[in-house]
Amino acid sequence: MLVGRQSWRFDNPPVILASAAIGGPFESKSPLADDFDAFHDDIWLKQNSFEKAEVKLLEHACQKVLEKAGLQSQDINFLISGDLDNQITASSFAARSLAIPYIGMFGACSTSMEGLAVASKLLDNGGANYILTATASHNAATEKQFRYPTEYGAQKPPTSQWTVTGAGAAILGKEGNGPRVTSATIGHVVDMGVKDPFNMGEAMAPAAVDTIETHLKEMNIEPDYYDLIATGDLGFTGYAIANKLFQKHGIQLREGLYTDCGMLIYGKNPKVFSGGSGCACSATVTYGNLLNRMRRGELKRMLIAATGALLSPLSYQQKQSIPCISHAVSIESIQ
Amino acid sequence: MLVGRQSWRFDNPPVILASAAIGGPFESKSPLADDFDAFHDDIWLKQNSFEKAEVKLLEHACQKVLEKAGLQSQDINFLISGDLDNQITASSFAARSLAIPYIGMFGACSTSMEGLAVASKLLDNGGANYILTATASHNAATEKQFRYPTEYGAQKPPTSQWTVTGAGAAILGKEGNGPRVTSATIGHVVDMGVKDPFNMGEAMAPAAVDTIETHLKEMNIEPDYYDLIATGDLGFTGYAIANKLFQKHGIQLREGLYTDCGMLIYGKNPKVFSGGSGCACSATVTYGNLLNRMRRGELKRMLIAATGALLSPLSYQQKQSIPCISHAVSIESIQ
Predict the structure, then answer these.
(1) In terms of C-beta density within 10 A (0-12 exposed, 13-18 middle, 19 or more buried), how is residue A105 classed?
(2) For residue A335, what pLDDT band results from cuts at 50, 70 and 90?
(3) How far apart (Å, rounded) are the C-alpha atoms in residues A203 and A195?
(4) Are residues B11 and B144 located together in one domain of the fold?
(5) In the prediction, which pLDDT does A114 show?
């Protein structure tokens, strides 16, 4: 059911039957490592390009989530996936090997929740029996494409973030045991004029706040409805800005309610500067740690507002500012 | 309602309240020119880059379709859009100026029908009041990104196609007058090993045939159910291959039933070699000529199977074959 202009309350909240998180070598040192299903100790995943390695990460997450759900790829009606690579090739090549009817999406690092939101709405009223939604990112593939090849060792400013090498996936079904997707808010593009691709947190924070504010308003709930509100990958820089914006907009968030996947994934590791980023950031944290915490009963209701910077290397070269977006999905433990 | 594995029959078939097609200077000489809403005689659209010009094309199509539907952008719940530019920047920048909650998609040249299919399913069961779905392509932006800058004057083989400079858009609503979207089939990736980015028709034809065959089977209908079946942008080369594949698969298509938007848009103009291509190819032909023919009563039922080559310049450089996809949407004139 449409609520307000841009939110859905699901009449038959889809069940997250299983979720999976796969990481690279650096992610194995994450404070959330226990919630990953597997790590690869070779950043190349035995492939001859980083892009091909990213395909393997995504395939691995999809195979793992199928295994955990006890399903085969032919049971799945639709794969909804996207990633940061030009023309989302990681997703399209994974869709080829998985042989599941495929809806390609792009929302940069917001793709995780864009996919989960659309999957849930398609499933809500009988559009599918099972949908697999997934996303991936690869540190070296992304850095090379958007900034500098990591081999250059280019100096980074403190606002920069570390693209997660990993993939996250979830399978949604109409019934069964597991956390349920109860509502979602599709964001609109917010662009405050930031042009620096080394400062995604500042660029994306206003979009996250806008979507969370819209979600609370349209669903007619207070922030305290949730046990946890997490943004996707604002990092420490963007998190501080988001907090200020919440205050400015009169949104009171109690101590400990609001966090950010980009801060959680690597903790305060100085190597990552402002925190984690990439499509796999919110995907691995949500589909690993956060859902596990919900399955353990530590969380009853959470809102994940994944955040995406919709720039391209070319739009940056053409001196355009960075259009940003955030999509929020509410996941609840309902018996 | 889900039918088979990958098709939807819409319980409340969404109405195409209005559609619009915008073209560039070359498109103004199209045999279908009368069905375009406007042309730009400057391929730069007064911008300083082709990518910015593409944003303008997309914005123009969206503004035109809003005007034709008698709606304002704030009436629209969701914009579903995608394009060929890296990180679909044409769509994201247009979404910024239109200020409509935005679901970014990528299906290469299949984006037109990917968007229409998903928009219809979201609208079918109360997920929106109005959805605007759109896509664009720009000849010079696309050629530069995927092959060679047009200024180089690189020689082309006879299998190559001409990327349409244009944009197409449609607004769907729950009720009102106009053709209705009755069913849709989401395709899966088909890759027969073609690696030549100058021969998209051969690469994509098997995906189109696969999706059309699946559609007919899952919907339990014969090809004769339709007055017209059109593929997206196979061009003359891909059309001939598709015809052979239909025969091989025992699918009988009566004379005149099957056509291709890539053949229709420029006719037999030797300048375009095998025909038109690009996201705007199936979008402008469908949202211009074909829907106008339906509105005039010349067509009652048509199936549009847009086709997409999901390669990236990098996947080609890394010597990968081209994963292809096709999404089919059935549009009918129902009183």
Answers:
(1) buried
(2) low
(3) 8
(4) yes
(5) 98
Q: Which of A158, A173, A188 is where one domain is finished?
A: A173
Q: Which of B1, B77, B126 sits opposite A126 (nearest CB)?
A: B1
Which residue in this structure is represented by tokens 């500012």?
A321
Name chain A contacts of B52, Cβ cutoff 8 Å: 318
pLDDT in tens, A64-75: 999 999 999 999
**Over the stretch A16-63, which tens digit does the pLDDT of each residue have?**
999 999 999 999 999 999 999 999 999 999 999 999 999 999 999 999
Q: Tokens for B58? A: 């997309």
Q: Are residues A154 and A252 in the same domain?
A: no
Q: Are A133 and A115 in contact (CB under 8 A)?
A: yes
pLDDT in tens, A183-193: 999 999 999 99
Contact partners, residue B164, CB within 8 Å, separation at least 6: B23, B24, B27, B137, B139, B265, B276, B277, B278, B279, B280, B281, B284
Question: Per-residue pLDDT tens for B291-308?
Answer: 999 999 999 999 999 999
Number of domains in chain B: 2
Contacts of B87 in chain A (CB under 8 A): 84, 86, 106, 108, 310-312, 315
Q: What is the CATH number of the domain that holds B278?
A: 3.40.47.40
Tens of pLDDT, residue by residue over B118-144, are 999 999 989 999 999 999 999 999 999
Average pLDDT estimate for B18-22 = 98
Please indicate whether, in this complex, the C-beta atoms of B191 and A313 are within 8 angstroms of each other.
no
* Average pLDDT over all residues of chain B: 97
Asked if A310's CB is within 8 angstroms of B104's CB, the reply is yes
Same domain for A99 and A248? no
Distance from CA of B18 to the nearest CA of A (A): 20
The tens digit of pLDDT for each residue in B176-225 reads 999 999 999 999 999 999 999 899 999 999 999 999 999 999 999 999 99
Give the tens place of pLDDT for each residue, B258-278: 999 999 999 999 999 999 999
Q: Are B82 and B194 members of one domain?
A: no
Mark whether B137 and B251 lie in a shared domain.
Answer: no
Pairing assessment for the beta strands B228-231 and B301-309 based on DSSP bridges: parallel
- Reduce the DSSP state of residue A319 to 3 states and report it: coil
Domain that holds residue B122: 2-173
Q: Out of B173, B202, B223, pick the residue that ends a domain.
A: B173
Handedness of CA A71, A74, A75, A81 (dihedral sign): positive
Instruction: Output the 3-class SS for A74-135.
Output: HHCCEEEEEECCHHHHHHHHHHHHHCCCEEEECCHHHHHHHHHHHHHHHHHCCCCCEEEEEE
Rounded to a whole number, what is the distance in Å from the CA of A169 to chain B's nearest CA?
18
Instruction: For residues B34 and B78, state if they share a domain.
Output: yes
SS3 B331: strand
Do A277 and A136 fall into the same domain?
Answer: no
Based on the domain organization, do B168 and B210 belong to the same domain?
no
- Tokens standing for B208? 């189109």
